[in-house]
Records
---
Amino acid sequence: MTKKNLVGYAIDMVRAIAKEGGFKAEIKNTAWDGIFAGLAAGKYDAIASSVSITETRKKSMDFSEPYYTVRQALIVRKDSSATNLADLKGQKVGGQIGTTGYFTIKAAKDLEAKSYDEIGLAMEDLNVGRLAAVICDDPVAADYALKRYQDTLKIVQIIEGDIAEQYGFAVNKGNDEVLILINQGLAAVKAKGIDKELQQKWIGQ
């Protein structure tokens, strides 16, 4: 399961939410590194792209009710003896810029953080030995470590936060009109089990 699958899941969720909520949704493909700036500038009304709900983000934007729970995973090469972040002291760890995985790296002590525009690039560098590890969402990690690079990479730690990390749809602070529409549609989608059907389709769990 790739980041593309997570985005596909989110997009299908938006379409289902719009249908159940009785409104039309226009999907606009946007690069991750500029997605929050675009929201702030009013280029679109909401973000549906695997955005984790964090206290920091809640200071500048509002979130819908959660639609998916995720954890962060630590991936290393199979020839590595590291089993957790503490074992990587002084080493280079990669993550996608602007994600909670990258924030986890930055917050850890004695790690050299390297950012990437796309998580696949970080995985490629890890695969060839240019990184000691990568941190990303656990379903994305599973796709790379258990499928694409199953001969060279492995997941050694699921990093548990104080609370479960959850994805939500982000809107500009105070945009109650859009937030209410999304939450009403989301409630109907959950009540009918549509979210579970889409999760099975895109994520397989």
---
Amino acid sequence: MNRIFKIAVAAAAVSTLSLTAGTGVFAQMTMPDACKSETSASGTMQMPGGDMGQMAEHHKAMMEGMRETEPAMMQGMMAKDPDVAFVCGMIAHHTAAINMSEVELKYGDDQQAKSMAERIIAAQKKEIEEMTEWVKQHAK
């Protein structure tokens, strides 16, 4: 299986989990049906057209944006201090959101979606700055 695809699937799996408040148990996030990818009978995600080479350019760009941030996200979340692990993981997660938003600005057609992407970029950059400063002050 293609390495980029494996990373994208792993990142998507991490992204679809959310921590249930107060329980420490992970629960799968509910997505609108229109957001769900096609799956095979085994439940695994199918690549559009069968492989990365046949994917649309925007799909390739989204996957590349995830591939670039996944190692940093995983590394950040491995910090011994749970607060530092959270904040470091979120810095990389926010960077992935910026990458995805930039793909929308490049390939998207809908003005409302593009406007959301612009707002996401601005908000995530501000939060990355805040989190980076927090890490400088709190990481041991």
---
Amino acid sequence: MDNEPKPFSPEVEEDIKESLKRCSPETIDAAIAYRRDGDTSQIPTVIMGILERVMEPEERSKLTEATDETRINEDLGIDSLTMVEVIMMVEESLDITVDNDELRGLSTVGDVKGFIATKTAG
């Protein structure tokens, strides 16, 4: 499988909406803007929206105060299995590929944002 992004099309937009269907409209719009325009400034919105989606509803308020230093497991309560789900959703919505081995050093929100930004930069 090559790493060339699929050209943006109505089908790609529908795929994004489907893979992020339980995320906020802002998250979906950000993923579409990234895929359509290559706007990397949208990546943090996508990541935070996906994190919000996988968190328990009563825990989601923690994200409003989250910084790049916020720890994924200890502060947000996201375990490694859920983190794999997060990365799978990021892969689908941003059209990137992540190896499981690459996830080992990701312990904070900032780690995830930086890692995904690097992956999308090529």
---
Amino acid sequence: MNALKLMAILLAAFSQNLVAEEAGKPLEMTVYRSPTCGCCSKWLEHAKQNGFKINDVISEDMETIKARFGVPEKLASCHTAIVDGRVIEGHVPASDIQKLLQSQSSLTGIAAPGMPMGSPGMEMGGQQDAYKVVSFDKEGKHEVFAEHGTNQ
């Protein structure tokens, strides 16, 4: 076996061990939310069920928090979360958060603008709006990160 193949095998094994170690440890997420928003509590449960350890911060001044973390006004929703240095705005599915965290991009965060019906925490029976999760960077540029709902 040549040295290059051996190095590739060792690197792959080492990488798998790192992923396995991280898999057992929940990622910490700080969530800022209004004390009067019930759907935020439901989204927190969704995040917990998907392996996130939650630091729940109640705030009366969500506008200041969103500005501090660079959430573009047109992408705003009801709560703002920070996980691994990335911003998660609104009712973003945990699978999209994991996708963002696994990416090597320089994105600031992702947002589910508004409060789309059928998104995590906004379940209303069987009703579901089609909605987009949008990525954004420090310059305020944004683009579609994921699409959900009936018109995918």
